[in-house]
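Hi R.,

As promised, here are both runs. First protein below:
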Amino acid sequence: MSAEGTRRAIFAAFFANLGIAISKFVAFALTGSASMLAESIHSVADTGNQGLLFLGGKRARKAPTAEHPFGYSTERYFWAFIVALVLFTLGSMFALYEGIEKLLHPEALESPIWAFAVLFIAIVLEGWSLRTARHEAKPSRGKRSWWRFIRTTKSPELPVVLLEDTGALAGLVFAFIGISLAELTGNARWDALGSIGIGILLGVIAVVLAIEMKSLLIGEAVSPDVDASIRTAILDGPEVSRVIHLRTSHLGPDDVLLAAKLEFTCDTTATLARAIDTVEARVRTSTPIIRLIFFEPDFYDPTRADGEEALMTGTAEVVERFNQAFNDHDVDAVMAAMTDDCVFENTSPPHGQRYEGAQQVRAAWEEFFAASPHAHFDGEDVIVTGDRCVVQWVYTWKDEDGGTSSLRGVDVIRVRDGKVAEKFAYVKG
């Protein structure tokens, strides 16, 4: 998602929430509805949250200083985390307090027609805001589900806007149901229950946002397909013979730090310096979000303890990236984590199946994920030695009747050049 698209989504949410907040406060003043007051505070919190996102975006553009040499891109993650705290305290806690208060001391609604009118206006505005956010996010979402996109995107604004707008629409439905039941039954406690429902909903959204923003603040690596693109760019020339190990960290959505230990094919310091510059330029061209690059030249030596440790660490990381892409059901990311001449073999009855080459393996994964859209892979034990890895796993899926089934097995994996070259899956029993 482009920076301009992000701004459009935030602007749409800001003006929609501002208009909704004003209309809801008017409706609350006329009706005294607890649900309307809870929704009013919710909209005020959402409006302020868009302002915090704007603030984070502006501060993230500050130039690096001696005190902060890596820049201020992480400000976007910090202010998005503050948004989660605001949503929990000002939105969720207040809605719960107001709902419990009205549940204990119910008051009859006045002029409920105003509440329904404002709810209709709010639903239209929130729907427009959500539509804008979905439209701007769709190009970068690709084939991922919206939930998976929210969990894996590196842009903090997207989870905030998408979850806030979705939660706002759900909250409006709660308010509508609560006010409607209060009018139909003559019992104002239904309105109070609507406010409590809104509070619980906002609390759940706030917790989800806090978890995602915490992960981004700590520092997340690039996605498996971006990692594969970086490795390809490094090795796409005569300067480097091997990637010994590689680390990445998102300082911001479009600001990545890259550190790698590489084996260069250079004989002199001068040629090494030129090789480093060439490889850096190639990486920046293939992956423009890489801003800071640190390369450490070294010789790969599997007989050295640290060399063997680095190799095994690299193997484990490759397998972990592959398994993450597998659980995302992202065929492109799975194939980006495998070599062009990859081999995949399983023990499907009666005699198992073997797929050779990227085309056959891709077709196998596409068929597999289509048949098991909700399946999940969990590694129970991992043993790494050199470029080989053995993974003991449990595979879980949902049955047609809604139940859950599972089976266990073992994978034997061989890694080459930072990618999975061979994967042999054996099912137990």
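And here is the second one, sequence first, then its structure tokens:
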Amino acid sequence: MVSTVAREEAVTMNAPALVRRRRRALVLTAAVVLLVAPVDAQAPTQTPGAAAKKPAPIKRLADGKPDIQGLFMADGGGANYGLERRTGGGLNNPTRGVVVDPPDGTLPIQQWAREEVERRARPERGYDDPTAHCLVAGVPRSMYVPSPMHILQPPGYVVILHERMSWRIIPIGGKHTLPDHVRLWQGDSVGRWEGDTLVVESKNFNGKTWLNEVGEMVSHAETVVERFQPIDANTIEYRATVTDPVVYTRPWTIGFRLNRQEGEMLEVACLEDDQDLPHLKDVKEEFEKKNAKP
């Protein structure tokens, strides 16, 4: 689904589709600056001799488990435009790179899949991204699209409500019960607590989701293990390990932080506000017409 963000009014019909899609993200100027700025540059200036404010401790529920409820936003480093580090250029968004394993920050993708990702990044393939049609982003992409999420902890569950009008209901201490032939956009998730860390295992994906707008991919064989580790009352360390032997040569892991936000989620009317889709369709149809075999 398309997040409710301001869009430029003057978008020409002949502009490359991928450029148009990325142009939306430029309104998040402050976020982009944070992606590429050194950590020291992001630190607030303190008066000499003033003590740094100590983060509030982790809040607890009545049963002693961490209380991670509230509105959060991922410091996703531009992962919705590429999981690996990219310098950007022109209207191409820079990305910090969120791959923490392998240590070199490179996805261990098979050659056939790399070639498919390169094709998906072309302007005429922008129409094929399911989120362009307001379908859900899948896992782990739902966690780093540039829009907030609200976490709830009713008894026996963790529920994640995404502003882009999707949700995950995660039973705690349960077991996977879906048969293998039942496949879902968000997968089938079950959770457990390991000390103060919430561990969520998901499988039974349908293999139709994209990992981001540049087309990095997963298949129906994808499984994901997520770890939500609260650092303090306002910060959660997030890790997701993806295993997909159809696409990748080995499991890989991404990592970033979820930061507590003030306020509440907005109502996002994706279909009513989807201004990009007609342009993306025009670009795709024009490409197919030019390349049609006689």
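A quick note on the second one: The chain has one domain: 60-290. Let me know what you think.

Best,
J.
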